[in-house]
Amino acid sequence: MTMTPPAIGFVSLGCPKNLVDSERILTQLRAEGYRLVPSYEEAALVIVNTCGFIDAAVEESLGAIGEALDANGAVIVTGCLGAREEEIRARYPQVLGITGPHAYEEVMALVHRRLPPPHDPWSSLIPPQGVKLTPRHYAYLKISEGCNHRCTFCIIPSLRGDLMSRPLSEVAAEAERLVASGVRELLVVSQDTSAYGLDLKYRPDFWQGRPLETRIESLARVLGELPAWVRLHYVYPYPQVDRLIPLMAEGKILPYLDMPLQHGSQSILKAMGRPAATEKVLDRIAQWRKACPELVLRSTFIVGFPGETEADFEILLEFLREARLDRVGAFAYSPVAGAAANEFPNAVPEEVKQERLVRFMKVQAAISAEKLAQKVGSRMIVLVDEVNDEAILARGPGDAPEIDGHVILPPEWELEPGDFVEVEITGADEHDLRAVPVT
Ligand code: SF4
Q1: What would the 3-class secondary structure string for the chain be?
Q2: Is the minimum distance from the CB of 156 to ligand 1 under 6 angstroms?
Q3: Low-confidence residues of the chain, pLDDT below 50?
Q4: pTM of structure
């Protein structure tokens, strides 16, 4: 069952540096599916990002905390005044938590403790296998809200409305700030990344004096100029995606596309309310690979949608064998309260869904393992995610954080999270690669 995502109020005080912190926290909250609301009354929790620079700012910050406590009661304090915890505690012992400035992870941990993040596979942009706190070296960059499609299994349009793209200059400025603050990888997310700008009729915006149409292609170009990896998620295979492939081939953005295809059978795609041109998708994939051989394709599928016959499922397996996608996630269909598909006849029995899911994953596991094995002996640049006693976990251009695999290095190298390093691939299984740094 899907529930309305928890609502959070936010008060941001102080200088532009504090504003960047606020935006970073807000971006993370949105990426994890929280709603941001403009009033204390609607919020389940209020975050006050304070300033402590001069006495007047201290007074203003303390006043804002008091106001939020009176109106709402559940308050987290962060920012410069947070460094003077005793002063705040003395006046307001009931605040839920206090952190100093730039404490994004701690603020998110306090939020999670009070309001666990929503975990709906259809509405959460963060993968369900655990909302791990995003390390500082990568960040989600949300470019739009809502969606113009009406997929029959999904209620996002009724929850979040039609597509609303953020202005290109605003997204570019946020990306620039993130990179300046140490982010090494930007993960572009939305419900429909290819459609970016459609609602604004692709109107031109200005970035660094240049007029640029509000389109995914121009945004990808701008992001590609930053000294960071740029990875695109939720890209539907529309014709405009063809124009992104050269940017990948030129190394401007990562040669990676996360493209939720959902099924391979025309009749099921039709019932899902999705474009049903499977043949065209296969042709397009073949052309993309020709133009950019290192392209890594990830997709998600639903098995056991109402009305899915054994023949439809076989078509899906055949599609999978032909498409030879690199990374694939799959769900057994489950109804979401309020979705049109709930009323559809011919529901697939639970045990059939589960049996199909197992068959599906078996076919894909062999493809993924084969594709990863082809990388053994090659060299690639990887980004270090985590260093522990047993191993160094890194990711290559083909591995998105949280959802894909790792490139695993032996622990004895002097590396830190956020480092880029060239490695040689020495081994592979169906999910991860093993490698050693090139010396
Ligand atoms: S494209 Fe379909 S599944 Fe995705 S958000 Fe829009 S309606 Fe939902």
Answers
A1: CCCCCCEEEEEECCCHHHHHHHHHHHHHHHHCCCEECCCCCCCCEEEEEECCCCHHHHHHHHHHHHHHHHHCCCEEEEEHHHHCHHHHHHHCCCCCEECCCCCHHHHHHHHHHHCCCCCCCCCCCCCCCCCCCCCCCEEEEECEECCCCCCCCCCHHHHHCCCEECCHHHHHHHHHHHHHCCCCEEEEECCCHHHCCHHHCCCEEEECCEEEECCHHHHHHHHHCCCCEEEECCCCCCHHHHHCHHHHHCCCCCCEEECCCECCCHHHHHHHCCCCCHHHHHHHHHHHHHHCCCCEEEEEEEECCCCCCHHHHHHHHHHHHHHCCCEEEEEECCCCCCCHHHHCCCCCCHHHHHHHHHHHHHHHHHHHHHHHHCCCCCEEEEEEEEECCCCEEEECCCCCCCCCCCEEECCCCCCCCCCEEEEEEEEECCCCEEEEECC
A2: yes
A3: 1-2, 121-133
A4: 0.71
